Amino acid sequence: MKKTFYKSRVIKALVVLLIPIMYYFTAAFYKTTAIGRTTSGVSTVNQFIPTGRDFVNCIFNLGYYGVFSPAGWNIYKHMVYQKDSLNFNTIHLYGTEGGSFDAPLSQYEAGINNFMDSVHTTGLRGYYGREKIEKLCYSQRLVYEAEGGNNGFSYQNRLVTPTSDSGRTVLDACPDCPPTSSASAGWLCYNIKENLQHSDLLDFQEGDRSNWHIKPVMRINKSDFDNPAKRDLPVVKINTVNFQGDTINSVILRVWNFRQGNNYDGQYIEKFTFEFGFDSLRVSGRYDTVNGLSYGYSNDKSQCKVDFRIYWFGQVRVWLDKVVVDDDRANILLNPDPQISNQYTNKIIEEVNAFTSHPSNYTFYADEMSYSNISSVKRVQQIMKQTNSNAKLSCALTNYFNYKGFKHYDENLAHRIFLDSIQPERITCDAHEIFGPAYLPQNEAVPFSLK
User: Fold this and answer.
1) In angstroms, rounded to a whole number, what is the distance separating the alpha carbons of residues 196 and 294?
2) Mind listing the pLDDT tens digit for each residue in 424-433?
């Protein structure tokens, strides 16, 4: 017992002696910056702050305050106080301040650069919203998978069992495929689970009220297209159902509509050819007309019946992968044809080239984002980086949008999808609460009221 006790005491004594030695070598190994003076990499105080840490203390000016107009509260007059008295190190400018979406750069470039000069002279950095970047980030694309899954952005009811084709998970509707023939004609898929995104931002920006372009991604056999006797056969019908459950558009796609020019190669397509070049698969997002996708809108999101139903006529074999739905801006920005998309791509390039290299430009900025903006933000980021690798984009997220836009709300799911997809270099979390009983379940109390 005495021997064991003695060894324990010796070990403890050695450990005590080794601690300061280990501390010295550990501290000397890391280059640190401390509050106070450093000597040989060892701080003279006990508080360590890692080097390279970039803390941002930013003021977001509430509203559009007349930087380039005489009205309102002028940022120029108060910029120095925001730094010296309020101890902010970064200032924010909304995209609507100087240079509209369609304005030529020559109209506002000098004004924006003068503002940036003032920010830099004051010792601040800038979060710069630019209309030609921010509005394109707001453009919306929804992708509804035919086979289910996809976090609920998919169809819940299907006529046939999902299968694989060309590396895709699809619905294969076949009228004569022995030994197990497909089901007869019927609704190939319907009942989208997460269908709120087309009417969740009616009170924020105009995207939900614009046109929505419906793009079913599907293919048929080239042999069916090449057979003149089958050219007029109906393949599927797409019915668009609005918020209150009314069918507002019904379009039949025939074999002939699959043509690209005058031919078809049997591959998956999403753009179909109609007479006179008219886009028949387009509906209005308006809520104030019976033919609008948001008509019948209410705060009770359980009442939303928006759907893009696919009916199969049972006459031509078809493979359906998914249905893509774009608003007007996404239909241009994300268009695979450069002759169409370049009208927006060039706007982004113009802003990046004009303002990225200014020393006060900490980041470009896009205000509150939603799930439906993911594809567009990714594309905007890609164009920015291709133009100038130093260009950065910060996005804001808010629970308010996520709650309104998800029928089956999961705050972790909503934010995770956005962050995993975008992987932004900068992120801003807006502390927006849910106001009013209309947005809350009946068994939950309203946290506070606005007065």
Assistant:
1) 10
2) 887 887 766 5
